[in-house]
Amino acid sequence: MSQTVSGSASGPTRRSLLAGVAALGALGAAGCSRVATASSTEGGDLLGRLRAAGVVRLGIAGEIPFGFIDKNGELTGEAPELAKVIFKRLGIDRVQPVPTEFGSLIPGLNSQQFDVVAAGMYVNPERCEQVIFSDPDYQMLDAFIVRKGNPKGLHSYKDVVAKKAKFATGTGYAEIQYAVEAGYKESDILIVPDQVAGLNAVEAGRVDVFAGTALTTREVVKKSAKAESTKPFAPLVDGKPHVDGGAFAFRPTETKLRDAFNVELSKLKKSGELFRILEPFGFTKAEMTDLTAKELCGG
After folding, report:
1. How far, in Å, CA of 62 to CA of 65, rounded?
2. Mind listing the pLDDT tens digit for each residue in 157-187?
3. Cα separation, 10 vs 126, whole angstroms
4. CA 180 → CA 141, 142, 184, 230, distances in Å?
5. What does each C-alpha distance from 171 to 17, 22, 58, 150, 176 come to in angstroms?
6. To 10 degrees, what angle do helices 255-271 and 78-89 make?
7. Is the pLDDT score of 103 beyond 50?
8. Euclidean distance between CA atoms 233 and 179, whole angstroms
9. Is the pTM of this model over 0.85?
10. How many CB atoms lie under 10 A from the CB of residue 143?
Protein backbone atom coordinates (compact mmCIF):
# COMPACT_ATOMS: atom_id res chain seq x y z
CA MET A 1 0.00 0.00 0.00
CA SER A 2 0.98 3.38 -0.30
CA GLN A 3 1.67 6.93 0.23
CA THR A 4 3.50 10.12 0.92
CA VAL A 5 2.86 12.29 3.94
CA SER A 6 1.89 11.66 7.52
CA GLY A 7 -0.51 14.13 8.98
CA SER A 8 -1.41 16.22 5.98
CA ALA A 9 -4.97 16.20 4.78
CA SER A 10 -3.80 16.56 1.19
CA GLY A 11 -1.89 14.03 -0.84
CA PRO A 12 -1.66 10.30 -0.38
CA THR A 13 -0.43 8.92 2.93
CA ARG A 14 -0.10 5.14 2.43
CA ARG A 15 -2.72 2.47 3.04
CA SER A 16 -5.12 4.43 5.12
CA LEU A 17 -7.25 1.35 5.62
CA LEU A 18 -9.09 1.81 8.86
CA ALA A 19 -10.35 -1.75 9.21
CA GLY A 20 -10.33 -2.59 12.86
CA VAL A 21 -10.67 0.94 14.18
CA ALA A 22 -14.05 0.15 15.69
CA ALA A 23 -12.52 -2.79 17.49
CA LEU A 24 -9.86 -0.48 18.84
CA GLY A 25 -12.43 1.71 20.54
CA ALA A 26 -12.45 -0.40 23.65
CA LEU A 27 -8.74 0.19 23.96
CA GLY A 28 -8.94 3.88 23.21
CA ALA A 29 -8.35 4.80 26.81
CA ALA A 30 -4.82 3.54 26.41
CA GLY A 31 -4.05 6.65 24.38
CA CYS A 32 -5.48 9.17 26.81
CA SER A 33 -2.42 9.61 29.00
CA ARG A 34 0.78 10.77 27.40
CA VAL A 35 4.24 9.30 27.59
CA ALA A 36 6.98 11.03 29.52
CA THR A 37 8.41 14.22 28.08
CA ALA A 38 11.26 13.70 25.65
CA SER A 39 14.77 14.03 27.05
CA SER A 40 17.41 16.44 25.87
CA THR A 41 20.06 13.74 26.43
CA GLU A 42 22.18 13.11 23.35
CA GLY A 43 20.55 10.21 21.48
CA GLY A 44 17.61 10.28 23.90
CA ASP A 45 17.02 8.30 27.07
CA LEU A 46 13.72 6.67 26.09
CA LEU A 47 15.21 3.18 25.89
CA GLY A 48 16.29 3.35 29.53
CA ARG A 49 12.94 4.75 30.63
CA LEU A 50 11.04 2.04 28.76
CA ARG A 51 13.17 -0.65 30.38
CA ALA A 52 12.43 0.82 33.78
CA ALA A 53 8.70 0.96 33.06
CA GLY A 54 8.62 -2.47 31.44
CA VAL A 55 6.17 -1.36 28.75
CA VAL A 56 6.32 0.40 25.38
CA ARG A 57 3.34 2.14 23.79
CA LEU A 58 2.80 1.37 20.12
CA GLY A 59 0.89 3.68 17.82
CA ILE A 60 -1.23 1.52 15.51
CA ALA A 61 -3.87 2.34 12.91
CA GLY A 62 -6.16 -0.69 12.85
CA GLU A 63 -4.86 -1.86 9.48
CA ILE A 64 -5.00 -5.54 8.61
CA PRO A 65 -2.43 -7.14 8.36
CA PHE A 66 -0.08 -4.40 9.57
CA GLY A 67 -1.34 -3.71 13.09
CA PHE A 68 -4.82 -4.35 14.48
CA ILE A 69 -6.95 -5.82 17.27
CA ASP A 70 -8.24 -9.29 16.41
CA LYS A 71 -11.70 -10.72 17.10
CA ASN A 72 -10.53 -11.86 20.54
CA GLY A 73 -9.49 -8.34 21.48
CA GLU A 74 -5.78 -9.12 21.18
CA LEU A 75 -3.15 -6.87 19.60
CA THR A 76 -1.61 -8.48 16.52
CA GLY A 77 -0.38 -7.77 13.00
CA GLU A 78 3.06 -7.88 11.44
CA ALA A 79 4.37 -4.77 13.20
CA PRO A 80 3.04 -5.51 16.73
CA GLU A 81 4.20 -9.14 16.60
CA LEU A 82 7.65 -8.02 15.49
CA ALA A 83 7.63 -5.32 18.18
CA LYS A 84 6.85 -7.90 20.87
CA VAL A 85 9.95 -9.89 19.92
CA ILE A 86 12.36 -6.99 19.50
CA PHE A 87 11.34 -5.01 22.58
CA LYS A 88 11.52 -8.15 24.71
CA ARG A 89 15.09 -8.58 23.51
CA LEU A 90 15.70 -4.96 24.51
CA GLY A 91 14.49 -5.67 28.04
CA ILE A 92 10.93 -4.37 27.66
CA ASP A 93 8.42 -7.13 28.36
CA ARG A 94 5.09 -5.57 27.41
CA VAL A 95 3.66 -3.67 24.46
CA GLN A 96 0.55 -1.54 24.79
CA PRO A 97 -1.51 -0.45 21.77
CA VAL A 98 -2.53 3.16 21.29
CA PRO A 99 -5.05 3.23 18.42
CA THR A 100 -5.34 6.20 16.11
CA GLU A 101 -6.06 6.96 12.46
CA PHE A 102 -3.17 6.44 10.08
CA GLY A 103 -2.80 10.14 9.31
CA SER A 104 -2.47 10.88 13.03
CA LEU A 105 0.40 8.47 13.68
CA ILE A 106 3.30 10.87 13.13
CA PRO A 107 1.63 13.83 14.89
CA GLY A 108 0.73 11.51 17.77
CA LEU A 109 4.29 10.22 18.01
CA ASN A 110 5.81 13.68 18.04
CA SER A 111 3.29 14.95 20.60
CA GLN A 112 4.24 12.10 22.96
CA GLN A 113 0.98 10.17 22.65
CA PHE A 114 2.97 6.95 22.28
CA ASP A 115 6.59 5.83 22.03
CA VAL A 116 6.86 4.18 18.61
CA VAL A 117 4.80 3.89 15.43
CA ALA A 118 4.22 0.19 14.76
CA ALA A 119 1.98 0.27 11.69
CA GLY A 120 4.03 -0.95 8.74
CA MET A 121 4.51 2.70 7.69
CA TYR A 122 6.17 3.31 4.35
CA VAL A 123 9.45 5.21 4.53
CA ASN A 124 9.68 8.23 2.24
CA PRO A 125 11.61 11.53 2.17
CA GLU A 126 8.73 13.68 3.41
CA ARG A 127 8.16 11.51 6.47
CA CYS A 128 11.90 11.35 7.07
CA GLU A 129 11.81 15.09 7.73
CA GLN A 130 9.44 14.49 10.66
CA VAL A 131 10.56 11.20 12.25
CA ILE A 132 13.46 8.75 12.15
CA PHE A 133 12.85 5.24 10.86
CA SER A 134 14.23 1.83 11.60
CA ASP A 135 15.38 -0.07 8.55
CA PRO A 136 12.39 -1.64 6.75
CA ASP A 137 11.18 -5.03 7.90
CA TYR A 138 9.44 -5.62 4.57
CA GLN A 139 9.36 -4.33 1.01
CA MET A 140 6.27 -4.13 -1.14
CA LEU A 141 5.27 -3.96 -4.79
CA ASP A 142 1.88 -3.00 -6.18
CA ALA A 143 -0.70 -5.26 -7.82
CA PHE A 144 -4.15 -4.92 -9.32
CA ILE A 145 -7.48 -6.57 -8.62
CA VAL A 146 -9.08 -7.34 -12.00
CA ARG A 147 -11.85 -9.57 -13.27
CA LYS A 148 -10.98 -13.23 -13.82
CA GLY A 149 -8.78 -13.66 -16.85
CA ASN A 150 -7.76 -9.97 -16.77
CA PRO A 151 -9.82 -9.22 -19.93
CA LYS A 152 -8.28 -5.79 -20.48
CA GLY A 153 -4.72 -7.02 -19.98
CA LEU A 154 -3.87 -4.58 -17.19
CA HIS A 155 -0.39 -5.09 -15.73
CA SER A 156 0.83 -1.54 -15.04
CA TYR A 157 -0.43 2.00 -14.54
CA LYS A 158 0.59 2.74 -18.12
CA ASP A 159 -1.75 -0.04 -19.25
CA VAL A 160 -4.59 1.52 -17.26
CA VAL A 161 -4.05 4.85 -19.04
CA ALA A 162 -3.50 3.39 -22.51
CA LYS A 163 -6.60 1.19 -22.35
CA LYS A 164 -8.76 3.86 -20.72
CA ALA A 165 -9.69 1.49 -17.92
CA LYS A 166 -11.97 2.55 -15.08
CA PHE A 167 -9.57 2.81 -12.15
CA ALA A 168 -10.07 2.69 -8.38
CA THR A 169 -7.85 2.71 -5.33
CA GLY A 170 -8.15 3.37 -1.63
CA THR A 171 -8.43 6.48 0.48
CA GLY A 172 -4.98 7.99 0.96
CA TYR A 173 -3.21 5.25 -0.99
CA ALA A 174 0.12 5.99 -2.69
CA GLU A 175 -1.38 4.31 -5.71
CA ILE A 176 -3.28 7.55 -6.38
CA GLN A 177 -0.05 9.35 -7.14
CA TYR A 178 1.41 6.42 -9.06
CA ALA A 179 -1.61 6.45 -11.39
CA VAL A 180 -1.47 10.22 -11.80
CA GLU A 181 2.23 10.04 -12.62
CA ALA A 182 1.39 7.53 -15.33
CA GLY A 183 -1.05 10.03 -16.85
CA TYR A 184 -4.39 9.10 -15.27
CA LYS A 185 -6.58 12.08 -14.41
CA GLU A 186 -6.93 12.24 -10.63
CA SER A 187 -10.54 13.45 -10.75
CA ASP A 188 -11.44 10.29 -12.70
CA ILE A 189 -10.13 7.93 -10.00
CA LEU A 190 -12.79 6.20 -7.93
CA ILE A 191 -11.68 6.39 -4.30
CA VAL A 192 -13.02 3.62 -2.04
CA PRO A 193 -12.37 2.94 1.65
CA ASP A 194 -10.17 -0.15 1.33
CA GLN A 195 -9.30 -3.28 -0.65
CA VAL A 196 -12.56 -5.03 0.25
CA ALA A 197 -14.54 -2.17 -1.26
CA GLY A 198 -12.16 -2.28 -4.22
CA LEU A 199 -12.84 -5.97 -4.77
CA ASN A 200 -16.58 -5.32 -4.61
CA ALA A 201 -16.27 -2.54 -7.19
CA VAL A 202 -14.38 -4.82 -9.60
CA GLU A 203 -16.79 -7.73 -9.09
CA ALA A 204 -19.79 -5.46 -9.70
CA GLY A 205 -18.25 -4.05 -12.88
CA ARG A 206 -18.17 -0.48 -11.56
CA VAL A 207 -14.44 -0.36 -12.31
CA ASP A 208 -12.02 -2.43 -14.37
CA VAL A 209 -9.20 -2.37 -11.86
CA PHE A 210 -8.38 -1.64 -8.23
CA ALA A 211 -4.77 -0.87 -7.24
CA GLY A 212 -3.24 -1.75 -3.89
CA THR A 213 -0.27 -3.55 -2.41
CA ALA A 214 0.65 -6.97 -3.69
CA LEU A 215 -0.07 -8.42 -0.25
CA THR A 216 -3.53 -6.98 0.30
CA THR A 217 -4.73 -7.62 -3.24
CA ARG A 218 -3.68 -11.28 -3.26
CA GLU A 219 -5.21 -11.86 0.17
CA VAL A 220 -8.58 -10.24 -0.56
CA VAL A 221 -9.23 -12.14 -3.82
CA LYS A 222 -8.63 -15.60 -2.33
CA LYS A 223 -12.34 -16.34 -1.93
CA SER A 224 -13.54 -14.45 -4.98
CA ALA A 225 -15.07 -16.34 -7.90
CA LYS A 226 -15.09 -13.26 -10.12
CA ALA A 227 -11.76 -11.50 -9.54
CA GLU A 228 -8.05 -12.18 -9.34
CA SER A 229 -4.88 -10.27 -8.52
CA THR A 230 -2.21 -9.53 -11.09
CA LYS A 231 1.46 -10.29 -10.81
CA PRO A 232 3.21 -7.75 -8.52
CA PHE A 233 5.01 -4.89 -10.24
CA ALA A 234 7.01 -1.81 -9.32
CA PRO A 235 5.28 1.51 -10.00
CA LEU A 236 7.30 4.21 -11.72
CA VAL A 237 8.39 7.25 -9.70
CA ASP A 238 10.22 9.92 -11.70
CA GLY A 239 10.39 7.38 -14.49
CA LYS A 240 12.17 4.72 -12.42
CA PRO A 241 10.79 1.51 -10.85
CA HIS A 242 10.06 2.10 -7.17
CA VAL A 243 9.90 -0.42 -4.33
CA ASP A 244 8.32 0.70 -1.06
CA GLY A 245 9.50 -0.40 2.37
CA GLY A 246 7.63 -0.41 5.67
CA ALA A 247 9.29 0.33 9.01
CA PHE A 248 8.92 1.53 12.60
CA ALA A 249 9.04 5.27 13.31
CA PHE A 250 10.65 7.01 16.28
CA ARG A 251 10.92 10.59 17.48
CA PRO A 252 13.97 12.32 15.93
CA THR A 253 15.69 12.69 19.32
CA GLU A 254 15.54 8.96 20.12
CA THR A 255 18.42 7.67 18.01
CA LYS A 256 19.65 5.29 20.74
CA LEU A 257 16.33 3.45 20.76
CA ARG A 258 16.15 3.37 16.96
CA ASP A 259 19.73 2.09 16.70
CA ALA A 260 19.17 -0.62 19.33
CA PHE A 261 16.00 -1.66 17.49
CA ASN A 262 17.93 -1.91 14.21
CA VAL A 263 20.55 -4.16 15.79
CA GLU A 264 17.90 -6.67 16.87
CA LEU A 265 16.04 -6.37 13.56
CA SER A 266 19.24 -7.19 11.68
CA LYS A 267 19.71 -10.31 13.81
CA LEU A 268 16.16 -11.45 13.03
CA LYS A 269 16.74 -10.95 9.31
CA LYS A 270 19.95 -12.97 9.33
CA SER A 271 18.45 -15.84 11.34
CA GLY A 272 15.30 -16.06 9.23
CA GLU A 273 13.11 -15.44 12.26
CA LEU A 274 11.76 -12.21 10.75
CA PHE A 275 10.14 -14.15 7.93
CA ARG A 276 8.66 -16.64 10.39
CA ILE A 277 7.07 -13.73 12.29
CA LEU A 278 5.64 -12.07 9.18
CA GLU A 279 4.61 -15.12 7.16
CA PRO A 280 1.32 -15.75 9.05
CA PHE A 281 0.14 -12.30 7.91
CA GLY A 282 0.49 -13.12 4.21
CA PHE A 283 4.05 -11.95 3.63
CA THR A 284 6.25 -14.00 1.30
CA LYS A 285 10.02 -14.27 0.98
CA ALA A 286 9.76 -11.85 -1.94
CA GLU A 287 8.76 -9.19 0.61
CA MET A 288 11.84 -9.68 2.78
CA THR A 289 14.31 -6.87 2.17
CA ASP A 290 17.77 -5.44 2.65
CA LEU A 291 16.58 -1.92 1.89
CA THR A 292 17.71 0.68 4.40
CA ALA A 293 15.92 3.70 5.80
CA LYS A 294 18.72 5.86 4.46
CA GLU A 295 18.04 4.68 0.91
CA LEU A 296 14.31 5.28 1.16
CA CYS A 297 14.78 8.66 2.83
CA GLY A 298 16.69 9.77 -0.25
CA GLY A 299 20.27 9.28 0.88
Report:
1. 9
2. 999 999 999 999 998 788 999 999 999 999 9
3. 13
4. 17, 15, 5, 20
5. 7, 17, 23, 24, 9
6. 100
7. yes
8. 13
9. no
10. 23
